Amino acid sequence: MSGLVIFGGATRIAKFTEMIVPIMAGIYLLSALGIVLMNIEKVPEMFALIIHDAFTPQAAVGGGFGTVFMTGVRRGLFSNEAGEGSVPNAAATASGKHPARQGLIQSFGVYVDTWFVCSATAFSILLTEEYEIGGELTGVALVQHSLASIYGTYAPHALAIIVFLFAFSSIVGNYYYGEVNIAFFEGDETGALPSILAKNAINIFRVGVIAMVLFGSFAELSFVWDSADLFMGFLCLTNLYAILRLGKYSFIALDDYILQKSRGVDEPVFDRKIIPEQKGIHAWK
Question: How far is C-alpha 85 from the chain's CA centre?
Fold first, then answer.
């Protein structure tokens, strides 16, 4: 299916996924809300457990502070992708009159994703009390087991479909990020890439994406996660360098947006002339 979308241009599949994923996310959140309402008397106890286990010294020492911290960082990056550089690709495809507005929307998305989606998963597991510290069930399997205890045997199958749609849309979405960026290589005036490589970069990338999807479906899950963490680290380093170089221009754009709003402008409009360095500005003409 990934190959059909990437090589065959099967945009109907991609559009269907794009349409159905928000619905699936809504169903998942509603199911978690149902669990909360059915176990409303346990909610205070649940929060007490979270706070107690998060801040007790033995929790940090017992799990190894470094291990706990690194696990939190790695999973946090996958949760909302803030700081690792892929979200700006999504923001850049949006049509807007001011870049700062889109940046603020993307930053708010971090809180929506972490507060609602991730919290829904945690609440579902903790309130059903189906978890076991050090037990065999972890990850999606644990969530499926928790939902099954409330909604019956069909719940794990429904969650499997939801996870599949999330995964497939992520593959297509991340491919699109790459395709958009590679478009800058074609006809590269700087000569940074050999012409033959620039011309065939998109096809090389497509083959690489399909190969990694295939490899990921057969490889050990632990190896897949470790590899993803490694390459996520490379992404972060690249993005941090970009932030160091371009951050000052972001603040100029943000100050301009705030100034226009303070003057009563309902929808601020960006003027590229406020940026002192004009070289490299492609989108705002």
Answer: 10
CA distance 182 to 160: 33
Please name which of 124, 200, 197 lies closest in space to residue 159, comparing C-alpha atoms: 124
In angstroms, what CA-CA distances link 73 with 66, 91, 121, 134?
11, 23, 18, 21
Global pTM value: 0.74
CA gap 222, 226 in Å, rounded: 6
- Are 168 and 179 contacting, i.e. CB atoms less than 8 angstroms apart? no
How many C-beta neighbours within 10 Å does residue 220 have? 8
Query: Measured between alpha carbons, how far is 195 from 161 in angstroms, rounded to an integer?
Result: 43
Query: What tokens appear for 246 in the block?
Result: 């371009």
pLDDT tens per residue across all 285 residues of the chain: 888 888 876 667 667 777 887 888 888 889 999 999 999 999 999 999 888 877 776 665 655 566 667 777 777 777 667 677 777 777 777 778 888 888 888 888 778 777 888 888 889 899 988 887 777 777 888 888 888 888 888 888 888 988 888 888 888 888 888 887 777 666 555 555 666 666 678 888 889 999 999 998 899 888 888 888 888 888 888 888 988 988 899 899 999 999 999 999 888 999 888 888 877 777 776
Cβ-defined contacts of 206-215 (< 8 Å, 24+): 206/6, 206/7, 206/175, 209/2, 209/6, 209/171, 209/175, 209/178, 210/2, 210/3, 210/6, 210/7, 213/2, 213/171
d(CA 166, CA 159): 10
Question: Could you tell me the two tokens for 230?
Answer: 């490694």
